[in-house]
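How it folds:
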Amino acid sequence: MNRTDTAPLPAVRSDPSVEIARLAARYRRANGPVIALMNRLGGRIEDRLGGLPPEVRARIDSVTRSALEKAYHLAASGRHAPDLGPRGPMALAALTGAAGGAGGLATSIAELPVTIAVILHAIRRAAAEEGFDPDDPAIRLEALRVFAAGSPLATDDGVNTGFLGARMVVTGPALQRVLAGVAPRLATALGQKLMAQAVPVLGAVAGAGLNAAFLGYYREVAHVRFGLLRLCEGHGTEQVIAAFGKAVQPVRVTRI
């Protein structure tokens, strides 16, 4: 995996505990007040999601899978995009969420590809800030794996630490395997978001607020995953993951 020349890494410490504590704190910050409110309304949101017609749920699944694949292939051109600044992606996510939510479920589904592209761009930026080259094909694949953290609405989901330290050759079949594992989890998360927008008490934060909250969640998770990946390269995967698991208890760390 290539590193960026503009983001030098600190010297490897003999004890990674300070960095692990920093990453654990980022993970605990991932669920902000909007996500906390949605979690309290989890049962109502799940009931609404379960009541969707099968063809609507299938549409969400297919749109999510297609959007992930297109965003992955377009990701390398991200370095040519204008720099929106530290707050730009959040503002863009809010804008697209507001536009999608304005027309109900149909426009919300139509807006999903834009939301996914904006979030993936934020994930790539997090990778760069942790010292990796976001245009490296392997890092682009790792960016997709961030979405395997599941839904910010599911309190028993955690940081996906599976495959950290692995070296996957990026081929067409490898990409399809990652997409097959990530797309259903992201589709469920986004389906929950769409249903949360229809809960009356969330009316004030629907659309714009939910998109911003989801972007913030996945951006923090991306920092955690790429920070752990960096530490694994210097200290060994098992040692780092075990220490991180202790640091975030009682949050579950998944390995899928």
